[in-house]
Design goal:
The complex is a heterodimer.
Chain A: H1 2-14, H2 16-37, H3 41-67, H4 69-72, H5 76-81, H6 87-117, H7 124-149, H8 155-166, H9 168-183, H10 190-216
Helix pairs in contact in A: 1-6, 2-3, 2-6, 3-6, 3-7, 3-9, 6-7, 6-10, 7-8, 7-9, 7-10, 9-10
Chain B: E1 6-17, E2 20-31, E3 35-40, H1 46-53, E4 61-66, E5 69-70, H2 75-81, E6 82-85, H3 97-108, H4 114-119, H5 135-148, E7 153-157, H6 165-180, E8 184-189, H7 192-196, E9 201-206, E10 209-212
Helix pairs in contact in B: 3-5
The chains are: A mainly alpha, B alpha/beta.
């Protein structure tokens, strides 16, 4: 899996301009959402968490569909499958690389959210943990579906269509936990949402790893 | 022939794409260390046969064993001992020649790619991205990829395509080296004249069916 991960980082580094474009897309989405609320700082702050995850979700479809683009050129992924390597290792390599990319994107969008939505927080470790778990929860099924749709003509449409309904629980838990980190958590509810995120990550990462062989073979 | 001496034991292999049978009822045995030429027109099923035997795709009908391993149930064992030079280069455009081969080398636990790059005459372009390579250079790099895998059975699909005369000689030398090292080589080609001289076995396909064993 280390070799697979190393390959993913190398490919991501070579197409790093794409990562900048995805960040700009996410930041622009946050800016546009803030226009919808208007100059009401209390309302902006209240909706900040939801819009952060909406921006990250929209950006993630670009990141995830791009992750299989290089694999489809010259059928490089088929070439990898014909090597003595487990498809599962290839999946986990790609899913972890995608998760890291989404985590970095999420962290990069936080200052944009703070500035646009006046949504500063002192709960930085909790916010980072939620971003990490939420991004991982999007990446695991996202990578699987990206592999499934990579050969389809309408992959840009098909990927969100398949992915979004599946990750509703992860998004719900991420938005709630982020909201509690920003607005305060007097009832101590954040732990429950974080545990829900951990549970969904456990299910997604194990199930998608098991299914990947069947998706990519023949 | 005894099972242990067989590199390939194919029985009634067939594969269809949609309603068209690309390959139908192909059966043959090939001993270890032999060079086999598969000839036939465009669309005769040569590529489909190589892709089935290299486990890239499954047959719809029939069974086969490669080096004694079942094609469906023992894919990983087959992939450990075979290499496919396909129509597609299997290369990443944004990575350099060295990086592409380094990935293969790491997955196969093979030697560093420098010697393979040198063997195909691309040592001086090792750090250039594949996107800047000509079709012939990509073919050479794909050949280096096959060499890195140190296959016991090598499947070469149109190995002479896009190559210059120097490249033709390179392919013939490499096939001779593989054979000398005990490997089995199966070559699908239109260029019968170039292979017929050193192939031990000929197989002719027409519309997916064997014409002569």
């Amino acid at each position: 899996m280390i070799t697979a991960l190393r390959k993913e980082f190398l490919l991501q580094w070579r197409t790093r301009a794409q990562a900048v474009a995805v960040f700009v897309f996410g930041a622009t989405a946050l800016l546009l959402f803030s226009f919808a609320i208007g100059p009401n700082s209390a309302a902006l702050r209240q909706h900040a968490a939801g819009f952060l995850w909406l921006g990250l979700l929209l950006s993630s479809t670009l990141t995830l569909s791009e992750s299989f683009l290089a694999e489809m050129e010259n059928r490089a992924f088929e070439g990898l499958l014909l090597l003595p390597v487990s498809p599962r290792a290839l999946y986990y390599g790609k899913a972890v690389a995608n998760a890291i990319q989404l985590i970095v994107l999420g962290i990069a969008l936080v200052p944009v959210m703070v500035v646009l939505y006046d949504a500063g927080t002192t709960e930085i470790p909790m916010l980072l943990l939620v971003i990490a778990l939420g991004a991982a929860g999007i990446s695991a099924p996202g990578t699987l579906y990206s592999a499934m749709t990579s050969q389809a003509r309408a992959k840009q449409t098909l990927l969100p269509l398949l992915l979004f309904p599946l990750i509703v629980p992860v998004l719900l838990a991420s938005v709630k936990a982020t909201s509690l980190a920003i607005l305060g958590d007097p009832m101590g509810q954040a732990t429950s949402w974080i545990l829900l995120l951990v549970a969904f990550n456990g299910i997604y990462w194990s199930l998608c790893g098991l299914l990947f062989d069947r998706v990519v073979e023949d | 022939m005894e099972q242990e001496s067989l590199a390939i034991d194919a029985s009634h292999l067939a594969r269809r794409y949609g309603r068209r049978w690309a390959l139908a009822d192909v059966s043959f045995q090939l001993r270890r260390g032999a060079v086999m030429m598969i000839a036939g027109r465009n669309g005769s099923g040569k590529t489909t046969l190589l892709r089935i035997l290299s486990t890239a795709i499954r047959p719809d009908v029939g069974r086969a064993a490669v080096l004694g391993h079942d094609l469906i149930r023992e894919k990983e064992e087959i992939r450990r001992e075979t290499a496919l030079l396909a129509h597609y280069s299997y290369l990443y455009e944004s990575l350099s020649a060295f990086e592409n081969l380094d990935i293969v080398s790491r997955f196969c636990g093979g030697p560093p790619p420098a010697a393979a790059l040198d063997r195909v005459g691309l040592a001086d372009r090792a750090d250039d991205p594949v996107a800047t390579f000509s079709a012939g250079m990509r073919k050479r790099l794909s050949f280096a990829r096959v060499l890195l895998q140190k296959p016991t059975v090598a499947f070469l699909d149109e190995p002479f395509g896009q190559l210059d005369p120097e490249g033709f000689a390179l392919v013939q030398q490499v096939v001779a080296e593989l054979k000398h090292g005990g490997a089995t080589v199966i070559i699908a080609t239109h260029q019968v004249d170039r292979v017929a001289g050193f192939a031990d076995v000929h197989l002719m396909l027409e519309q997916g069916r064997m014409v002569s064993p």
